[in-house]
Structures are given as C-alpha cells and as structure tokens.
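Weekly structure sync, notes
Attendees: PL, DS, HV (note-taker this week)

Item 1: Endoplasmic reticulum transmembrane protein
DS walked through the input record. Source organism listed as Mycena indigotica. Sequence as pasted into the shared doc:
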Amino acid sequence: MTIYYSLTFLLLAGEMVTFCFLVFPLPHNVRKPVFKFLSESPIVAKVAYALKISFIFVAILFADALQRMFRVTAEAELAKQNGTAHTGSPGVENSLAARKFYSQRNTYLTGFTLFLSLVLTRTFYLTLDLIHVQEEYAKLKGTGASSKGSSSSSEVADLKAQIAELNKKERDFETLKKQAAQQAAEFDRLATKYNEATGGNSNKRKD
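Item 1 (cont.): predicted structure, written out as tokens:
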C-alpha cells in the first residue's frame, strides 16, 4: 500500500473512532461542554479546515481508483473473452487478479472515507441541534414552573385574604352575639325589677 493510501486508511480509522465518540451515550452535562468546545474552538476550526483539504485529495484518489478499477475489470473481461487468462502463463492471470483486487480495495477505502466524513458532519450538527433543543426545553420548563409558582403564590395570597376576611366577619358576629346576650340579660333584669315594682304597688293598694 502506497503512502497516500496508508494515510487514507489512518484517516478512516480516525473517523471511525470519532463516530463512536459522537454516538456514545454521554450525559448531557458532559456532552454540552464537549460539543461547545468542538464547535467554538479556533484550534478545532483549523483542524477541520485541514481535514476538508485532505478530503479533497481523498476525492481525487477515489476518482482515480474508480477509473483504475473499471479499466482493470475491462481488461480482465477482455482477457477472459479472448482466453488469454486461461491459455497464458499463470503469472498473467495472477497479475490481473492482483491488479483487480488492489483497484477494488483502493476504491472501497477512499469511498468509505468520503462517505464516513459526510456521516460524521451530519451526526455532529444533529447532536448540536439536539443539545440546543434540550436547552430550549429546559428554559421553557423553568419559565413554566416559575409562572406556575407565581400563579400559585397569588392564589395562596387570595386564599389568605379570604380567610382573614372570614375571620374578621366571625369576630364581628361573635361581638354581636355578646352584645345581644348582654342586652337580653339587661332587658331581663329590667323586666324583673319592673315586675317586682309593679307587683309591690298592687299589694299596697289592696291593703
């Protein structure tokens, strides 16, 4: 394997590790600062820019490997039709098989590297959107709880005012009852004295 295909393989391995990290179920408190650092860090931005340039070279390698695969496949089919692959020396047949294998390997290697780069990019931005939605939901939930708490506190204040008003009315009613009882007792006392006085005067007149 040539050096540029070796570097492509290392890039593919790095993409696989990064993809496993992105889809790993991390807690929200850990995921949020990590993805915030990845999306806002200038160092990460420079690395991402360098990777974009490297993916352009990988795309060129993919086009070249695809062209070679088609050419080697066509040569193998032509040799098979002409019978040279069977009637010729074994070295020719092995050479065609090796060239076909290497061309297919290089095509799959560069193709999967490009495909996984697209998957990584999409997964990263989807995770950022998910974190943003979770933050918005937490804010809305907190706002709803605070409004609910304020409405509950106002309701409690209204109930307290109503209870205080009822207690005041009850105290007024008890005061009226006491006054009515005192007036009834005074009326009974005066009526008793009046009856006694009236009864005494009637007895003197009879004597």
